Structures are given as C-alpha cells and as structure tokens.
C-alpha cells in the first residue's frame, strides 16, 4: 500500500484521521474512568468512614426491614463502591466494573427518584426544589442535580462498556507479551 493511501485510511507515519479518532476515543474513555472511578472512591470512602450514618440513610428508604440486611449493606456497599472506583482509576477490569457500576447506579437512581416523588407529593412545591441526603455520600443534595449527576455517571459507564479504550490501563500492561 502506498504512503498516501495509508495516510488516507488513518495509518502511516503522520497518524491521520483514524489515529486522531482513536486518541479521542481513548481520551473519552480515560475521562469517563476518572469521573466514575473518582466519584466512586470519594463517595464510597465518605460512607465507609461513617457506616452508622450511612445505615440511618439506607433505613429511610424502607426497602429492607431485616437488621442483618441493613447492617450488611451499610458495611459492605461503601467498600465495594470504593473497590470499583479503584479498579476504574487503575484501568483493571474496566468493562466488568462498568457493568457493576451501571448495576448500582440504575436502581439507586430509581429509588432516589421514587423517594423524591413521594416527598414532592406530600410537601408540594417544585420538584427540583426538593433537597435531602440521599445516601450517596455528598450530604444533602438537590434532587434534580443528583439525578442529572447519576445520568452522566450512567452514560460514562455505558461508554466504558462499549468503547474498549485501553490507554493508561494497568490490566493490559500486566499481561503484554504473554501468549
């Protein structure tokens, strides 16, 4: 193949549009990993350091009545969230961790929305004016802001699930050259 043809297809010595698109996709993947992973680490750590307060917040949702289940959630979930955040930041098991993060974010968002809807119906006022501590680790938040934040986190996780960018990932570097 000639150098001119190679450059048109995105290869060659100067990179070309194909290389630029790859760098952009890798950049978006790294950004998504940093956003989701960083927030999971920060929020998980804030909950892990105060499990009693987190337990009180989980209890408010009235999803589980058994004290053993509530205690298990309050103790295990923050550390699991922290672990997932570290995996994303390090670039280890990115796709699997993206699935897990979606699996945590979707039901959490639905439960937060349902609680906010219930507060809206009982208190009245504008929906976006509702504020409460949802248990995410950030303290009292405006509900519309929290739901928008979770939507962005879910989009980032979905991107990581499909993108496959491996730039600055630890996992492929550990096994490079092994066949």
What does it look like?
By secondary structure, the protein is mainly alpha-helical. It is 72% helix and 3% strand. It contains 7 helices and 2 strands, in the order αααααββαα. The protein has a two-stranded antiparallel sheet with strand order 1-2. A hairpin with a 6-residue loop joins β1 and β2. α2 packs across α6 (143-163). The longest helix has 32 residues, at 17-48.
How are the elements arranged and paired?
Elements: H1 3-8, H2 17-48, H3 51-60, H4 67-90, H5 94-123, E1 131-133, E2 140-142, H6 143-163, H7 170-174
Helix pairs in contact: 2-4, 2-6, 3-4, 4-5, 5-6
Helical segment tally? 7
> Major beta sheet, specifics?
2 strands, antiparallel
| Helix fraction bin | over 70%
β-sheet strand percentage: under 5%
Which strand order spans the largest sheet, edge to edge or round the barrel? 1-2
Rg, alpha carbons: 21 Å
Overall outline: globular
What is the total tally of β strands? Answer: 2
Helix vs. strand class: mainly alpha
Instruction: Give start-end ranges of low-pLDDT stretches.
Output: 1-14
Return the string of H and E elements.
HHHHHEEHH
Q: Span from first to last CA?
A: 29 Å
pLDDT average, as an integer?
A: 85
